[in-house]
Amino acid sequence: MATVYKTAYGTVLMILLAVVIAGSIAMSIMNSALLGTIILVLCGIYAGYVYANFRYIIDNNVLQIKCGALYATKINIGEIRKVNETFSILNQPAGSFHRLEIIYKKFESIQISPKEKDKFMAQLKAINPSIEFNLKK
């Protein structure tokens, strides 16, 4: 049975994204760049779609990370070595700066921001008890 976790949305990240997109569209309109305006509006719509569709799915022993229609990755939960709580502005499939960094295989890592962090981590731990959790107090 698959469990779907939605992303946690950070207010700062949402405002930053909106300001950049709206500012770019406003500048394009002020410069009478119709094609540029259309492209920016379409990019803004797509960015909103991707941002609204972050999903983290645990199905059997696999963690699937989905962001819109163009990005998806799968991680074998048995290969996860460590989960670190972090605050990062790196470009990752997360809707907030408050994230969990998942370290898997030998040197691979990805940052995500599930809304229900405790439930998410408990489910990972139930599947792979050897995962080391480093959480901030």
Could you characterize the architecture of this molecule?
- This protein has three helices and eight strands.
- The chain has about 140 residues and is α+β, with helices and mostly antiparallel strands.
- Strands 1-2-3-4 form a four-stranded antiparallel beta sheet. A four-stranded mixed beta sheet has the order 7-6-5-8, with no helix packed on it.
- Helix 1 packs antiparallel against helix 2.
- The model has no long low-confidence stretch (mean pLDDT about 85).
Largest sheet: 4 strands, antiparallel
Helix content: 25-40%
Q: Which shape, going by the Cα principal axes?
A: elongated
Radius of gyration of CA atoms, rounded to a whole number: 17 Å
Q: Give the strand order, joined by hyphens, for the main sheet.
A: 1-2-3-4
Series of secondary-structure elements, N-terminal to C-terminal = EHHEEEEEEHE
**How much beta, percentage-wise?**
25-35%
| Structure annotation, total helices | 3
The poorly predicted ranges are: none
Average pLDDT, all residues: 87
Structural class: alpha+beta
The termini sit apart by 32 Å
The total of beta strands comes to: 8
Oligomer: single chain
In short:
The protein has 137 residues and is an alpha+beta fold.
